[in-house]
Structures are given as structure tokens and as C-alpha cells.
Amino acid sequence: MAQDATHPLLAETEPGLDRTGIRRLLAIMAALRDPQTGCPWDIEQDFASIAPYTIEEAHEVADAVARQAWDELPSELGDLLLQVVFHAQMAEEAGMFDFADVVARISDKMIDRHPHIFGDESRDKSAAQQVRDWEAIKARERAAKAERGVLDGVALGLPALTRAIKLQNRAARVGFDWPGPADVLDKIAEETRELVEARDSRDHAHLTEEFGDLMFVMANLARHLDIDPEEALRLANAKFTRRFRFIEAALAAQGRSPEDSGLAEMDALWDKAKLAERG
To answer: What does the alpha-carbon distance between residue 272 and residue 251 come to, in Å, rounded to a whole number?
Structure first.
């Protein structure tokens, strides 16, 4: 459908609505949500329906960074910014808060959390000390919000693996932690045995529970080894993708596809891919 060139939001420049400014984006979002003239899809949305898109857009930003796709990053960041604007617009309609409140909150938080920059504390401190100070400030913020439990405030909407690390870090601060990696490895062996027992029981709910326990302990091992488990799994995914594409290419050179092959042949090609990577 052709655009209405007379619509003020399509103008290259409009008083108070610079085409590159945040005010124009806010106006666009308000127009999309207008009950009379807006987009039916946008009007139907609420916080719950938009939240999954917010998470997805954050992951797409991370993906662009991981691929060093710098030409794509402005667009991906724009998509993520739109999610913030969408939530703020719905909140404004409900009389809860608006975009200005969002900006004010994060600005105040950044100033409060950096007293060595915006306050009278010395900037002459290590990065590790800054992290400790940051955690102390966040602890005071949680106390002000009546979050008394050690695990309070760890967001439910985080990816499960990331949330596991955050929960474990919180517990470790009060001494609930294994002394070292060897103890975690012993626990992994125990959880693996329990997973095998659950498999043999053919109780799927129990099997799911034990699998979750094993993944949780694996995340804890990553923490003890100072490994980001999300990053480790991303690297493993990339490696799998790279090697499987080697298999596809090798078979395609013979005019064949994986469907025309068998596990033994593909496994042999996988080993060739490994050797090729090692140079």
C-alpha cells in the first residue's frame, strides 16, 4: 500500500519532530496505538503479549554483536528501542508512567550507582572494587524495595541458564556454595546417576526434573570455572553449525544430501571437519 505522503510523521522535517529524534518515534508509537486511527495489531497488544518480542529483540542485538555485524546493529538497536517505547506508550495510556519517567529512572540510577564519577568518592579504585561497590548499592536498593530474601529480585523472565547463574551467585554471597570445582564435579556425577535412574523409571515428569537438576549443576560448574555458560553454549552451537555445514558441502560435492547418507558416513565427515579445523 502506498504511503500517505501528507502524513506529518512522514515528513523529513517537522517542527518539534526531528526525523532522527526520539520525539518522532514516540509520536509514531502513539499514532500506531490510537484507538480510532491506529494499527489494529498494535492496538490489540498488551504488556504480556509484547514482552516476548522485547526478549527476542534483545537477543537479536546480541546476535549482531556476536557476528560483528556492525552494519546491522543500528537497525537491531532501533528494534529494541521500539520495544521500550511500546511499553512506555501502553503505560502512559494506563496512567502508570510515560517514556520520560523511564529515562528519568535510568538516569537517576546511573548517577546513584556511580558515586565515584558523579559524587565525592574517589575514582581511583579497581574494576573489582567497583563491582563490589555496585553490588552493595544494589543490595541497598533491594532493601528499599522490601526485597529481604537473598534471591529476591532475580528476574523470572531471564533465560533459564542466565538466571541459574544469578541465583547461584546470590546464594554464594551468604556462603551457600561448594568450596571448589571438584565438589561440583562430584555433584554432577551424582545427578547423572539420578538422571539414568529417572530414564529407566519412564516417568517423564521425574526425568524432566532430574535433567533440570543436572543442567543447574552444570551451570554451577561454569561459575566455578569462571566460564559464561551462555557464551560456551553459543560457541558449541557455532561449532556444530560449522561442522554440519562441512558435511553438507562434502555430500553436495558428490551430488548428494544428508538424507542420502547414513550416520557412519556423516560421522566420518564430522571427523574430517574436526581435523580441518585443527589445521
So the answer is: 13
Q: Are 39 and 82 in a shared domain? A: yes
pLDDT at 1: 43
Query: How many domains would you assign to the chain?
Result: 3
Distance between CA 245 and CA 235 in Å, rounded?
A: 15
Other Cβ atoms within 10 Å of 47 Cβ, number: 13
The radius of gyration of the chain from alpha carbons, rounded to an integer in Å, stands at 25
Domain that holds residue 64: 8-104
- Per-residue pLDDT tens digits for 20-33: 689 989 999 999 99
**How far apart are the C-alpha atoms of 90 and 228, rounded to whole Å?**
35
Is 248 contained in some domain?
yes
Global confidence as pTM: 0.62
Q: Does residue 121 belong to any structural domain of this protein?
A: yes
Higher pLDDT, 230 or 36: 36
| Helix spans in 21-146 (H) | 22-32, 40-44, 47-66, 73-93, 99-112, 115-118, 127-144
pLDDT of residue 166: 92
**Residue for grid cell 491506529:** 38
Report yes or no on 44 lying in a domain. Answer: yes
Residue whose C-alpha is closest to residue 154's, from 175, 129, 173: 173
Q: How far is CA 70 from the centre of its chain?
A: 19
83 assigned to some structural domain: yes
User: Which one, of 247, 277, 275, lies nearest residue 261 by Cα?
Assistant: 247
Q: Residues 38, 64: one domain?
A: yes
Pair (128, 98) in one structural domain: no
State the sign of the Cα–Cα–Cα–Cα dihedral 197, 199, 203, 205: positive
Sign of the CA dihedral with 67 first, then 71, 73, and 78 last: negative
pLDDT (0 to 100) of residue 2: 47
Tell me: do 93 and 13 sit in the same domain. yes
